[in-house]
Amino acid sequence: MQVADNYRKRNLILKNGKSTTGSGQGPLVNQFIIFVSILMSVTLLLAETNEEIKNITSFGTIAYISSENGRDAIILRQGNEDMTVYVCSGENEIILTPKVTIDGKYISFLVDDGSSQRVLHLLGPIENYVGTWSAIDSVVTVVKGGAWPNYGQDQIFYLSMQNPDTNDLTLASDIYQIQDGKFTRINENEGLERHLWPLISPNGQQLHYRKISIQEENMHIAPRVNSIIYDLNSQTQEVHLADQNIFIEQWAANGMILYYYKVNDVERTRVYSLYDPKSRESKEIYQHSSRQARLSPDARFLATLRTYPAGSSQFDIFIINLETQQEINLTQTPQRSESLIDWIK
Question: What DSSP state is assigned to residue 34?
Fold first, then answer.
């Protein structure tokens, strides 16, 4: 009977953190409870951190421009890891207007060293071997000025530039095709227009650019600005987004053209929208004072550039989930600025 009584006493329910047996085990039990609580909190924190890392990784891979040892560099960001795939050879060189190809495997860009000429580069194919990114840098040609090089099918480049055979001092520019070192102008504007921001369609069959009247600019009136979609096969063109003061960002993988317009408010808000060239309809997707924007290949996320901390001169890349409007600072580099390129597939 004595053994049974002792057994029952040891199994009495704890009340108010004290043993009803009066055996003096209350402080030990309290310490055990505190230890278990701390252990559970740490476990939950680690789970949340791991989930956050998992979510970051699920965004995909972002290419951006930053600096490395005082020189412009192209860096890939996947999850919490950075990988440098190109660094300028000189401190006075800068990377200009990079574009990712339709398949997400190449980056075409210009390098300017302050002279009158720029060097056209092609970086790729960009590949990942067991968690390590690699890419081959190739020098394509030297161009006179120029911007926004697009690498299309059959090793053909398209970019906006002035006539390479003249010393034209006007602001006129055309869209040129570069193949095997040969420059071919694909449109004529008689020196009266600027043709800017060329983009290749996801199917590689069309080219988009903005057409701006120089005459109206010289007359100090708001120039007419139209989007032109040029068919590379039939060499025909259509006018889109006519007379709209907008800025083109990207011809996204889903076939939509991403653009923004500025709102005249204190916050300097930019309204980002997607334009469907087939239906000619636009859909607003995001508002913020961010600079630059790129839509992910699956159209679920938007990468943007904004100052961080707010009001500083440094820029970080933010990722926004367009379904939930939740966002995350991807780069978190308050002592360094980034410039967004695009998503890498």
Answer: H
Q: Which residues pair with 247 in a beta bridge?
A: 260
* CA within 13 Å, CB half, 187: 31
Helices (DSSP H) in the chain: which residue ranges? 2-10, 26-58, 214-218
| CA distances for 307 relative to 250, 257, 282, 336, angstroms | 21, 25, 28, 11
Q: Which fold has domain 83-243?
A: Methylamine Dehydrogenase; Chain H (2.130.10)
Type of residue at 292 = Q
Q: What is the CATH number that goes with domain 246-345?
A: 2.120.10.30
DSSP 245: -
Whole-model pTM above 0.85?
A: no
Place of tokens 């990988």: 83
Q: What are the tens digits of pLDDT across the range 80-135?
A: 888 999 999 988 999 999 999 989 999 999 999 988 789 999 999 999 988 889 99
Looking at 86-95, 217-226, 316-325, which range is the least confident one?
Answer: 217-226
pLDDT tops 80 at residue 15? no
Q: Which two tokens stand for residue 231?
A: 């068919």
Is the four-CA dihedral 124, 233, 250, 170 of positive or negative sign? positive
Q: How far is it, in rounded angstroms, from Cα 204 to Cα 136?
A: 23
Q: Tokens standing for 325?
A: 């409007």
Reference 161, options 199, 193, 187, 196; nearest CA is 196
Question: Structural domain boundaries of the chain?
Answer: 83-243, 246-345
Q: Cβ(335)–Cβ(342) under 8 Å?
A: no
